[in-house]
């Protein structure tokens, strides 16, 4: 049976019309997006944050010097200051919660009748770095922990290869401790979703080290993922997957370009079809082949 080239032409026309309809739909629905404008902190906000940072620094120094009574007095001032600041444009809700929780935990530890100097120092460091992250968003002090975390991870890997359990547990403990110190700052400065990914990895490592089975290989298998999320949080490497570059400012232009490419390809295919066998396509029955 012979099919006239008109049938093929009709098929191509239908496809082209479909592309045109899709293009029209894009033009109607793909309106320029209004860029969300995040509120910028006011001068008053910045002044309050600066005062908070100075007060926290005083508290931190007293705790580090062993002046717990003075630390208790100043951390109360810190707690009062935190409630007087508006945080719009400064951090996310998760960051605000992390700050207030760190301050509340610090107060409990410093006022505890069974005060632990180790826990007190960690709490003071958490609050110190968190306040600094608010007052110095472009270059916060917690970025200095990158080298420490990398050394922890390298130590974990080396201890796993040599199967030295004591060193392995020591390096894992050091890694967890360093993460806990900067955790409130991470939530203040970075995307909470990325921080949650890190939390999941750290939780797995902490759980694995407590199992009776050999903890080495499961944790070593996870190290590349931990390195990757650490690099992303510290802005050390481009962890974005390779994707086609799209101009978000001119989505309609890109729609036209893509539609033009599709229609040009279809047009070329139709031209080739019209030249082949004089536009006729011979379809043989199975028994004739």
TrEMBL record:
Q: Which InterPro entries match?
A: Spore_YpjB
Domain of life of the source: Bacteria
Keyword list, A-Z: Membrane, Transmembrane, Transmembrane helix
Q: Where are the transmembrane segments?
A: 252-271
For this entry, the protein name equals Sporulation protein YpjB
Q: Which organism is it from?
A: Paenibacillus vulneris
